[in-house]
Design brief:
Blueprint (H helix, E strand, L loop, with lengths): L4 H6 L7 E4 L3 E5 L7 E7 L14 H17 L7 E4 L15 E5 L11
Antiparallel strand pairs: 1-2, 2-3, 3-5, 4-5
The structure holds guanosine-5'-monophosphate (5GP) and zinc ion (ZN).
Length: 116
């Protein structure tokens, strides 16, 4: 996707503060963190949002959840707890149309419905 910000970050065309990378995923620090730990986890494959995923993406979605645990552990927030969430389409306030999960933690997170 030529005009996709996160595809460009995944391709290394735009710099990011990487915390994890393999063939399938990239995790990097959010540019405007909402908590002491605020990391974005993306599949390198372009998918616009969760609602665009199909059964073909089941394995990727499962792996992403376990990767979140691994990154939470590396960030020292596995035991204290964290939130893993994805915004999907307009009512969620999704700003970047490339599937991404926010991994947030490092202090008590409070209201579940607050925009991340
Ligand atoms: P959304 O609202 O789409 O769920 O979240 C998009 C997130 O991407 C926001 O938290 C925003 O701060 C972050 N973001 C936007 N542009 C950039 C960027 O260029 N680099 C990084 N690291 N994060 C970005
Ligand atoms: Zn993309």
């Amino acid at each position: 996707m030529e005009d996709c910000l996160f595809c460009k970050i995944a391709a290394g065309q735009i710099p990011s503060s990487k915390v994890y990378e393999d063939e399938e995923f990239l995790a990097f620090r959010d540019i405007a963190p909402k908590a002491p730990v605020h990391i974005l986890i993306i599949p390198k494959k372009h998918l616009a949002d969760l609602a665009s995923c199909t059964e073909e993406d089941l394995t990727m979605l499962g792996k992403l959840n376990l990767l979140a645990n691994k990154i939470a552990e590396a960030e020292g927030i596995l035991n204290s707890g964290f939130r893993l969430l994805t915004n999907c389409r307009a009512d969620s306030g999704q700003e970047v149309a490339h599937l991404h999960y926010h991994l947030i933690g490092g202090h008590f997170l409070g209201d579940f419905c607050e925009k991340q």
